[in-house]
Design a protein that fits this description.
With 300 residues, this protein is α/β, with parallel strands linked by helices. 44% of the residues lie in helices and 20% in strands. The protein is built from 11 helices and 12 strands. It has a 5-stranded mixed sheet with strand order 4-3-5-12-6, covered by helices on one side. A 5-stranded mixed sheet has the order 9-8-10-7-11.
């Protein structure tokens, strides 16, 4: 290894923080220095390499193609160093288990089951991050993401947790008890949509480009979507898993199903050995998912 070819470590650290945070102010906060110090290190790194790493032509700086290459390499390198340091000091095992999932999954599936995990592992500390964003996994950040789709996700370990198609549902008080209305007529009803981009809104937008364009649409937080549908406030798109019992009891009617082979929730983790808390959580959530009833046959 030619150590003389390595640029100053402080400059590399500042550049990596800028690439991750997106601006010099946030990078300075992350490193505990002023934004002016970050700017100075960025210029020093470009001068050392004699390469333009940042495009300053717009209102805000962004990475050049060469800057993107360096940022990707530094992220992997610094992440490995942080992980190694946390491993040998025990810090990695001591920090809370950080879980990312969508708000609907958190409210409808995960939270009602977490007491059993807490009972089995009372020493475990958890941090639940319900967000529609495709969260990035990192050694000092999110340990596991629970994502809906067919997978895989490049560079990550993916394991199917449970299969479940998307369904369109509504309360009988809204659509009646008779024959199911054709899909193209559902635009005449009020619709409920989970705010932000999630498993349901992605599907609805794809469908809306063709056969369906709801005229009246109300966006609500994910934890309120199903309550509104059950109350008859609108038609909703959701994952079958969340409404299987409502459909079986007659509280909701399944109006349409979008089967996609392999669609369901997946456990997504970083490659490598899992720390004990993560391993315990994965084993527990597998057992919980195995207790779910199988998906009913699709509508004729």
């Amino acid at each position: 290894m030619d150590w003389r070819a390595l640029p100053p470590l402080a400059a590399l650290r500042a550049f990596s923080a800028f690439a991750q945070c997106g601006n010099v102010q946030a990078a300075g906060t992350a490193l505990g220095v002023s934004h002016a110090a970050i700017s100075q290190q960025l210029r020093a790194l470009e001068a050392h390499l004699d390469v333009a790493l940042l495009d300053r032509s717009g209102r805000s700086m962004r990475l050049t193609p060469k800057g993107e290459i360096l940022a990707k390499a530094l992220h992997a390198g610094f992440a490995a160093m942080i992980e190694a340091a946390q491993d040998i000091t025990g810090e990695r095992d001591a920090r809370p288990l950080h879980i990312s999932c969508t708000p609907t999954f958190a409210a409808s599936w995960l939270m009602p089951r977490l007491p059993s995990f807490r009972a089995a592992h009372p020493e475990a500390s958890l941090r639940l991050d319900p967000t529609p964003a495709l969260a990035e996994l990192s050694p000092d950040g999110i340990d596991i993401a629970i994502r809906y789709g067919t997978g895989p996700w490049p560079g990550l370990e993916t394991e199917l947790l449970t299969l479940s198609p998307m369904v369109v549902v509504a309360a009988p008080r809204l659509v009646g008890e008779g024959p199911l209305p054709p899909l193209e007529t559902l635009s005449d009803y009020p619709w409920l949509e989970e705010a932000s981009t999630t498993e349901s809104t992605d599907w609805l937008r794809r469908l809306g480009q063709g056969d369906l364009a709801p005229r009246a649409l109300m966006q609500v937080p994910g934890n309120l979507l199903l309550d509104g549908a059950r109350d008859g406030q609108g038609v909703a798109v959701t994952v079958h898993l969340f409404v299987a019992r409502d459909i079986a009891s007659g509280r909701l009617r399944e109006l349409h199903r979008a089967d996609r082979p392999g669609a369901g929730y997946h456990l997504v983790t970083r490659p490598g050995v899992m720390r004990p808390a993560l391993k315990d959580f994965v084993q527990w959530i597998r057992r919980e998912a195995a207790q779910d009833p199988p998906v009913n046959p699709a509508l004729p």
